[in-house]
Amino acid sequence: MRPELSVVMPCLNEAETLETCIRKAQSFFEREGVDGEVVIADNGSTDGSQEIASRLNARVVPVGEKGYGNALMGGISAAHGTYVIMGDADDSYDFNNLMPYLNKLREGYDLVMGNRFKGGIKKGAMPFLHKYLGNPVLSFIGRLFFKIKIGDFHCGLRGFSKSAYEKMEMRTTGMEFASEMVVKASLKRLKIAEVPTILSPDGRSRPPHLNTWRDGWRHLRFLLLYSPKWLFLIPGMLLFFVGLLLSAFLLIKPITLGSVTFDVHTLLFTALGMLVGFQFIVFYGLTKVYTIENGLLPKSKKYDRLFQFINLEKGLVAGVLLMIGGISLAIIAYFNWQEINFGDINNSNTLRMVIASATTILLGVQIVLFSLFFSVLGMKK
Fold it and tell me: What is the pTM of this model?
């Protein structure tokens, strides 16, 4: 018969603490009358962890592919429970106190996160950098990017229904698995709750598998890649419109602030900023299409309207018109140069015309190429 709850623990040489964790989970099942199982997702232990788990009647699931995410995906997929609670096998989480998680799952929540900052972090349980920099900063970025009201993105003790897990379609293989689960749950509009959780010091004598800088970067990289709006669109819009505004002023006449005069040389850099900003915006559009068409991000109504607003024909027309405008400006600049018998161009008005021409032509070419590639990516649709 299918148990109500599966407690899944990733395991890589956890012989020192594994028995304690399994016994605590089994004690919880017995005390609360919960029909449950303990699943040990073994990631290639060589210290006898598998024998310890089997002796205690826990189910051992061998997972050949290395990585925290791989181990959990293997263990969760093999779990038989209606609900799953995952947690590290280092005795830092109390498997004897899982009722707050199970109650929330029974209430209908899809994902129940632990919050160590609300529950309490015992002395020596979390390194200084993790407690005051890594976790708060990454959790803040996650809340900002994805509008998730979760205070602790990386708590290792969390519960979810098996059906909700299947909807998340998890993919990451390393420590960033923790961030992916929260982000996917939000993007899939699943119901998320949070409960206070106590974090105790690691019970092992060896260092943890977590690498502060490497795994911190992997979490940050994942958050950025799953939010093209913050990675490409917002910086791109800022660069493009600031560059456009300043270029418009400098095309009319030089700008003098105190003893400093900004002229055509500054115009070159403002035009460059505008072009770079437009590239960022283009990358946002292409990334959005790619991630949605390949199932990495969910499709929205705005996405369908995007193809009605932007298509190959409109892009080609807009790009060609800009190129024609740029070539026209180049012709005017040529006649201005002809007037001085093709000598040295000291007239800043002519240089302004040349910069405007080159910028407009480049924008036109970018729009044409973007429209072609945009249509190729959307062919699946």
Answer: 0.76
